Records
---
Amino acid sequence: MEAESSERTNSVPAEPSFLDTPQGRRLAYHRTQGALPGVVYIHGLNSDMNGEKVTSLDSYCRSRGRAFVRFELSGHGRSSGTLRESTVTAWLEDVSAVLESLTEGPQILVGSSIGGWLMFLYTLRNPDKVCGLIGIATAADFTQRVWKGLNKEKKVEVQRSGIYDMPSEYSSDPIPLSMELFSDGEKYTILDMPGIEIIKAPTWLIHGDQDTVVPPDISLQILQKLECPVQLRGIEDGDHRLSRPQDIHILQQALTALLNPESHVEEEDED
């Protein structure tokens, strides 16, 4: 695989670099060289690498000389492909390509929404490449949950057309999800199957109590299955995006705790 590199240390380039994956996809990314372990951010569905959370973490890592990679999954942002043709398998391959080509040694993975699901899936397959995890509103088993929420008539319609236009709280346009995505997602269940209890990397789970996209109970289920050191941080007035300054502060607290395991991170009340 080949990467067009425009590495940076002190400033954000206007244009991303691109990584060509073994599967023929082209992924947009930004990379900062720095101290290890590095941090890799995996964004959520219908999102990109330019949101408030990821850019704040980018700045946080740059200011501390910490290696950081952010990228866009295929079908998102400047990366190749469309959401209609995306699958969980393809996204997991994207994550694997980024970790293999753009990082050195074990990394701390930060995953938002489906990015959190992908980070757990990657860690199960590559435990030696991960030394810490932060899941933000982790959308584990997202495709199964959406499919189960459809009535019989809608399922028949989606099976016939091949596409489910999922309404979005954050856009007037629906999010096109393919029947192939739903079928493919069945292979990647982590909540109802044994598996993630073997993960050893220390983990933080951050979830807004007012999240109407991914129920907070999902993070609780993950907590109950994990046997590694794990912290669950609920944010009483937090929604799905968790992009407010106070939310980002908690995210940075979690990263600080993973980077400095001997330090004590005090929890603050969420008013």
---
Amino acid sequence: METVLLMLVFITATVVILYLYSAYDRNRRRLDLKRQAANRFRMQAEHRMGCLRKTNENLRRRLADIHGRLIDMELRDGNA
């Protein structure tokens, strides 16, 4: 009788340990997925920021070029 009771205790302890580990593993995977999603979002934001920076630099160059042309046109027309 003691042997059966001892086996039952060990089996119950094993089941409880496996259940707790599966809950821990589920939460760990969930956190890992959240971390991956946050990294993807950060990388996309950095990419967008780089694109906006490049567009901004190009627009500044174009604006400076147009401004220079307007000044040249005014100087040629004698309006300056």
